[in-house]
Design a protein that fits this description.
CATH superfamily of the largest domain in chain A: Arfaptin homology (AH) domain/BAR domain
Number of strands of chain A: 0
Oligomer: homodimer
CATH class of the largest domain in chain A: Mainly Alpha
Protein name (chains A, B): F-BAR domain-containing protein
Pfam families (chains A, B): GMIP-like_FCH
Keywords (chains A, B): Coiled coil
Order of helices and strands of chain A: HHHHHHH
Distance between the termini of chain A: 101 Å
Mean pLDDT of chain A: 90
Largest interface: A-B, 122 and 123 residues
Largest sheet of chain A: none
CATH architecture of the largest domain in chain A: Up-down Bundle
Chain lengths: ~300, ~300
């Protein structure tokens, strides 16, 4: 639909000015979009850094105690979240480059259209000029008609009547020229204005398509990251679920355990017999021997000593 | 499974110390969890504020031009994202309160267990004491045995032999008492240590269940927000898609349009005839009349004049 070709006429012919002014907003909106994305990229970067800091907090969680292994889950999750947001930052920074590239392209298109629109601006001004002249010309003709009629009613001399008639005819001729000029300027304006309106519409259409493609890329990046973040959350939840209380207790017992051997009771007879044996051995010198059937445990006090 | 009842024995009986030390990490990990969640809440609050600022940037987007209505989509989306993250902040702040409530509860449980563990600590120390005496007692008995044997080999007098034998018997008696003391201390230690180990395990189990429930609530809040954010992204994408280029062009044309009436061409005959009529009318005074079949357009110059 040629919306611009239909809606920018009307009294005073301001349509061209409105369209021209609107066109100049195009590069502004492109610049604003770049600013918006830049701001978003900064927000994501800040968030990413904060998450990396949070990961450090998790790393510093007490390494002792049964809860310790769960800090690792927090650390990994925070690190991954930091990465997701950093990746979004980078994608948005790339997108800003695309926006700026388009911005340059757009300025070139605008320069070209501004040159073409010069002719239309002239036509608008010419039409405005002849439109101002026309009522003056009409008023002049009207005055001559009234003068002539007044003379006729006053029954003035034929000579004066002839003079008045000549004046009226001249005024009519002048009015005819004004009307012709107006019609010519109007026709020129209509053609040029229509051409320009269609050009403006094409330009805006191209602009909007480009901008929408950029918005699509923006939405896509944000959504991609959102999916990744969802995976990190899911992983976090799964990891927490997978590390059961029983597993944490076992892990702690196995890694921090001091041994499974309880101190055994001592049998006095065996203990004292072993001491006696050792006394005999010492008397015989350094030469060691062992009585068969006497284990280490029976000869010596247990581990605690 | 009684992991703690099995893994904290071994040489030197350090198991109790390890378990006691580990228990004291429980409140530390609770405090650290509260700190972690507080940090996360702060991060979300900062992000929320940044999003609100971003929404303002979108509100300030140029209101002129065809792209203008799309800024509203950005503004709404940013506002909603700000709200999602603010809501997460609030949920996390509530969660911190739960963590701190549990922390107080935990300290009470610890106080109770510390009191109960006092008896076990005593048993550990008694066992350590008798374990140190035992080798001394043994060495003393062993020396007496050697003395007696040496006298026997040297064929000492019966009297000296009798004296030595008495000394050996006394040393054996002393050793028997040491062994009995050790056995009694050992049995007491084993029972108390086992009780305490089971208590420690129950405490750690309760702690871990509580902590895991808090982590579950944390994950749930984060996930809830994630789902909401996903809806905001989906909405953003849909809104951008729904606002077609054609719709933007039409909206712009309709709201900023200057009119659909083109300036019409003038017919000189009708235009001059109308001027003549007006001249006659003026001469007749202010009384207005209209010639039938003569439209306004034919009588006057068009809108532009």
């Amino acid at each position: 639909m040629s919306y611009f070709g239909e809606h920018f006429w009307g009294e005073k012919n301001h349509g061209f000015e409105v369209l021209y002014h609107s066109m100049k907003q195009g590069p502004i909106s492109t610049k604003e979009l770049a600013e918006f994305i830049r701001e978003r990229a900064t927000i994501e970067e800040t968030y990413s850094k904060a998450m990396a800091k949070l990961s450090k907090l998790a790393s510093n969680g007490t390494p002792v105690g049964t809860f310790a292994p769960l800090w690792e889950v927090f650390r990994v999750s925070s690190d991954k979240l930091a990465l997701c947001h950093l990746e979004l930052t980078r994608k948005l920074q790339d997108l800003i480059k695309d926006v700026l590239r388009y911005s340059e392209e757009q300025l070139k298109m605008h320069k070209k259209l501004k040159e073409e629109a010069g002719g239309t601006l002239d036509a608008v001004q010419v039409l405005a000029g002849v439109s101002q002249l026309l009522p003056k010309s009409r008023e002049h003709y009207l005055s001559r008609c009234m003068d002539q009629e007044r003379l006729r009613r006053e029954s003035t001399s034929q000579k004066d009547m002839d003079k008045a008639e000549t004046k009226t005819k001249k005024a009519a001729e002048s009015l005819r020229r004004s009307v012709e000029k107006y019609n010519s300027a109007r026709a020129d304006f209509e053609q040029k204005m229509l051409d320009s309106a269609l050009h403006f519409q094409t330009l805006e259409e191209t602009h909007l398509r480009h901008m929408k493609a950029l918005l699509g890329a923006y939405a896509h990046s944000v959504e991609d990251t959102h999916v990744q973040i969802g995976q990190v959350h899911e992983e976090f939840k799964q990891n927490i679920e997978n590390i059961s209380v029983e597993m944490l207790l076992r892990k702690f017992a196995e890694s921090k355990g001091t041994g499974r051997e309880k101190p055994g009771p001592l049998d006095f007879e065996a203990y004292s017999a072993a001491a006696l044996q050792e006394a005999m051995k010492r008397l015989r010198g350094a030469k060691a021997f062992r009585l068969p059937g006497l284990s280490r445990r029976e000869r010596e006090p247990p581990a605690a000593v």
